[in-house]
Amino acid sequence: MRTASPAWAQWPDRSEDDAYTLGVEEEVMLLYPGSWSLAQAVEQVLQRLPDDLRKHVFSETHSSAVEITSGVHQNVGDAVAELGLLRGKLHGVLSEIGLTAASSGTHPFAFWHDMRVSGANRHQEVYGSMRALARREPTFALHVHVGLANPVSAVAAANQMRAHLPLLLALSANSPFWQGRDTGLASARTPLFQAFPRVGIPRAFESYAEYVETVDLLIRGGAFPDHTFLWWDVRLQPRFGTVEVRIMDAQATLGQTAALVALIQCLVRLEALEGYASSTMLRAQEVLDENRFLAARDGVDAEFIDPDRECRVPVRDLLDPLLEACMPHAEALGCVGELDLVRRLVEEPGAERQRRLAGEDDDQRRLVAALAGDFTPYPAHVSG
């Protein structure tokens, strides 16, 4: 085993006062208004971006998607406010070229044969490696970075966060439709993305050194060019000094995004300071994987396996005690209002809302039009 840490694994110098900072990434779809089909137009969009957007809007593997990335913020309110501004500016750019955008875990009626892979080197690398898998319909996720002062704390927090990933997926499930039909799943994005390698809930790591050696062995062996080709549901981002939670479907509104960002920020602080998650659950990789499937299938109606009690527990019964444990951390982080929005994710789950918008006549174009309306950042979307 090598002892020298590779360049990619160098953790930035941070003080404890800088811990729990936030960065948020939203993957969004590009659309043609009227037909509401995906627009394979990322190169055209990137060319039209003003300078202030170029450092916040990036291409994704598919030409019909872009990623919006916030800057670094101390609190959820500021991060989501910036996302709202970025959504608004992107909407303006798209309007000038006859396009619009929306946010959802999948596009309801896209088909693989209409998809194109973006021309950027990274995306062509993915295409060359994944081949036909990269030509499937695009999926859209929400990624949340939380800063930690050092890699020791980061590995510990990431290990603990594994226990919460199925719940975060259940709350965020927002992709019931695929290829023009209702899949019966709450998050069709999850099994679609599962076709890629290096996805899902990772194992626990005993130390940062073990994490680095495990990843670097794969890089040295030529499995992939760099550590960002790991697409685990939670991973470390040494360049930023963050734990990145990646399991969630993209959310239609800023209010839904704010709720999930607040919950993740509080959970990381809760686990870093208190170690809340059950040690039995953390050792039960098979249970975590099964609960992840149940979350993708049933969303907030799922019943998770509890390895301590050896029974099934409804997601709704898990939420209140978890929010109670998170509340002191929300108060310290200044996100009590955003954390309170988490209950709305249970009251109106994203997948069920999509089914309701499509209606009994299954009008998925009407659904996408409504999602596009959600994307435009009116103030009401931040609170609801």
Short synopsis of the structure:
GO terms for molecular function: ATP binding; glutamate-cysteine ligase activity. It is an enzyme of class 6 (ligase). By secondary structure, the chain is of the alpha+beta class.
As for the CATH topology, it is Creatine Kinase, Chain A, domain 2
According to DSSP, the number of beta strands is 13
Which quaternary structure do these chains form? Answer: single chain
Percent of residues in helical segments?
A: 40-55%
CATH class annotation = Alpha Beta
EC number: 6.3.2.2
Family: Belongs to the glutamate--cysteine ligase type 2 family. YbdK subfamily.
GO molecular function, one term: glutamate-cysteine ligase activity
Catalytic activity: L-cysteine + L-glutamate + ATP = gamma-L-glutamyl-L-cysteine + ADP + phosphate + H(+)
